[in-house]
Amino acid sequence: MVNRPPTILAIDPGFASLGYSVIDVGGDVRELGVLRTRPSPKKRRVRSVDDSERRLKELFEALDQILQSHDPALVCLEAFSAPRHASVAAKIALVYGMLLTMAHHRQIPIRSVTPQEVKRAVCGVRNASKEAIAAALIRQYGPCARAWDRGLERTGGFPDGCLVHGWDALGVAHACHGDELVQTLRRQSR
């Protein structure tokens, strides 16, 4: 049996597109992906609250599988920041609450990092662009092709434009790599 280093599950919370990455404490990316939910078609006349519950359940089930597959020692979340629209803020708050509950239920420690902390950890400045962050992550972790393949298998593929959420989650993982718990896990796994 191979003794693999402990993992970190990092998440860029979202309702329509939730980015995630699983990275071990040694810095190897195990899985990288985006979970997507779609609203019900208008012609089905589904109440908004019922549709939101269905979509939240889809995210819960997918994340539950990821948690079971990787058994992370730490969950890192991009800190909640309220979007401009109240309905979007409410949906993201539902996702954030679900994530906190899932981690607490499994007794997994949680760390949150702000977007500015991610930018500083990845690029050294608080105002880095998405392009600069992606370029720095590619230099640090390579193209992550195998990790993307595992994410694609789990999610069934990504539409154009949503890959950025997976990279955002990898940035969150990178920012959490300096956390005291991660450093302790790294020392213990040697």
Helix content: 40-55%
* Structure classification: alpha/beta
Per the CATH scheme, the topology name is Nucleotidyltransferase, domain 5
- Tell me the CATH superfamily: Ribonuclease H-like superfamily/Ribonuclease H
Could you give the order of the helices and strands? Answer: EEEHEHEHHHHH
CATH class designation: Alpha Beta
Which strand-content bin applies to the residues? 15-25%
Low-confidence runs: none
Shape: globular
The strand count comes to 5
Work out the helix count. Answer: 7
From the N-terminal CA to the C-terminal CA, the straight-line distance is 16 Å
Strands ordered across the widest β-sheet = 3-2-1-4-5
What's the alpha carbon Rg, rounded to whole Å?
A: 16 Å
Describe this structure in words.
The protein is an alpha/beta fold and 190 residues long. It has one domain (7-188): Nucleotidyltransferase, domain 5, CATH 3.30.420. Helices cover 52% and strands 16% of the residues. The chain has 7 helices and 5 strands, in the order E-E-E-H-E-H-E-H-H-H-H-H. The protein has helices at residues 48-70, 86-105, 115-123, 130-141, 145-155, 163-176, 180-188, and strands spanning 7-12, 17-24, 29-36, 74-78, 110-113. It has a 5-stranded mixed beta sheet with strand order 3-2-1-4-5, sandwiched between helices. The longest helix has 23 residues, at 48-70. The relative contact order is 0.22. The model has no long low-confidence stretch (mean pLDDT 85).
